[in-house]
Amino acid sequence: MLCATMALTGLAAAPPERPGPLVYVANLHSDTVSVVDTRAGTVVDSIPVGDGPDSAALSPDGSRLYVTDSAADTVSVVDTRTRAVVETVGVGREPSRVTVSPDHRSVYVANVGAGTVSVISARTLAVTDTIAVGDGPNGLAVGPDGCTVHVSNFESDTLSVIDTSTSATATVPVGDGPTGVAAHALSPAGV
Question: Is 10 a residue whose pLDDT tops 50?
């Protein structure tokens, strides 16, 4: 009789609620990434990563999370389905920011302590290039077409523009202490 009552009230027949969109939070002092269900407003998991996680970026399809481990000079690569680190990639000194190309072929890491950007192959998870930029790189943005990477350099007050096909770099003087950068495509009207 109890089972019939539960079925009538919907308690037994209700399917489990699907999780909402997930957000990943790099926790610098606990060496973890919190997985937050935004619908429920709760932490649903905690993923151990390297020492000093400073920033994180998702692959375009959401299958991989790249986390800079600033105190370990590495990037932790997380499989978002299993919520486990599948690879740890050594990069330059004090990686501070990370971003992923729109085609998910390359991962770019700003190494604030080295004045470089490491390029990681998303397929092999190996560093394929290290590009010198200005002093104190701490902001990254891949152009919408993936042809350029823009790097703000707070110690040299510059913007480095990397051509992703050649690794050639152009430098643009900007304001005092740039700490971030964003890029977008121009509309047909030029805006």
Answer: no
